[in-house]
Amino acid sequence: MVENGEIVKEQYTLDEISVMRYKPNVAVQALITKLEQPFKNDITKIAGYSTIPLYRYFVVENPIDTLIIDSLMWKIKPDIVLSNGFRFCPPNTTPDATGNIPITEGYIFDMLPVDSTIRTAKVSGKQIKEWLEKELNNVFAKDPSKRLGGWVVKFKGMKVEFKAFEEMGSRVKEVMVNGEKLNAEKVYFVSACEREGDPATMLCRMPNVKEGMNTPYSLHEVLREYLAANSPVTPKPEGNAIILDAPSTLLTQVYGVDYTFT
User: What is the CATH number of the domain that holds 154?
Assistant: First the structure.
């Protein structure tokens, strides 16, 4: 409640919206069906299959993000692959007649709403460590106004042990790149998506990278190609992000409230 330009009372509740309780609005559903009809064949075309359910519930690692970084590593073959910590996507859990879970063209857009160009660059170990600290603070900052990210950024080729609920600058405990400890002076070849408007010296919010260059590939292209060559896939999270002070199945960064996420 706001009075005279000041907040005088706050109230917050977590309300579950159940599809069993709330049925689709008939008029809205009809409008969606009408608008989708010209693109129905494209939306429902199957690009590949997964042997396990695809979801993005957990803060740290999820099968959807594992599928994305697996495809990027397969195509680009850098030292390290990075992927933004996207948060929202409906689960995909229902097998078809094949016994596997179909991944449609429409679901590729659910997983990756922005079909960004893939970018590569060279970065030092020192830059990676500083960037990890900043990224983790974006997710776990005690001050909610400083939580600027979604879920933890995803990576492959690198294993990071961290404590989520320590202070900024002291969360990262150990970083391994391809089985070796991160070397602050070493230069690593890294791949991520281009964030539109970023200069060539920026990679996945990491500033001052060297030899930043866009590839001829986009995220959707690589994911389609990977599925065509490797389907059915089993994108089980590898434990690349190792959280030391909370479960790997952490569902929220919110704490100090009188309810729990289950």
Answer: 3.90.780.10
